[in-house]
Design a protein that fits this description.
Blueprint lengths: L7 E3 L4 H11 L4 E5 L2 E6 L2 E6 L13 E5 L3 H10 L6 E5 L5 E6 L5 E6 L12
Parallel strand pairs: 1-4, 5-8
Antiparallel strand pairs: 2-3, 3-4, 6-7, 7-8
């Protein structure tokens, strides 16, 4: 099987509120729009907010969106100015990444991750 592309599809309880969060608060660039949905660029991935196909209730999504940022402290400050409540401020994890947690309007956890310059992800492993 060849996987050619992928994206996360969110089906929020309140489409307009969630659309505004990803578009205006997180300021993700729009990849494409269609009647009842918007697809956003999120680094090498896509996040689609769809007004169709859902139950109209908040989901019980137990996963998280992982979004890498250059500086987690700067991202925290920017989100605070926009009124976003942090579930957890930036903290360096035992595995070396700096993580900050927030939730979208439906409670989907978003993990903002900063990869420090000395982290193994940044080093050539060959």
């Amino acid at each position: 099987m060849d996987i050619l592309n992928s994206r996360v599809i969110l089906r929020p309880a309140d489409y307009e509120r969630t659309l505004a969060f990803y578009r205006d608060t997180l300021e993700l660039a729009i990849a494409r729009e269609y009647p009842g949905g918007t697809v956003f660029f999120a680094g090498q991935a896509l996040i689609e907010v769809a007004a169709h196909g859902g139950s109209g209730r908040s989901s019980a999504f137990e996963g998280a969106l992982w979004l890498q940022v250059r500086d987690a402290a700067d991202a925290a400050a920017e989100l605070a100015v926009k009124g976003v409540v942090l579930d957890r401020p930036p903290v360096q994890e035992p595995w070396g990444l700096i993580e900050m947690w927030v939730r979208d309007p439906d409670g989907v956890r978003i993990v903002f991750v900063q990869v420090p310059s000395d982290h193994p992800i940044r080093k050539d492993q060959r």
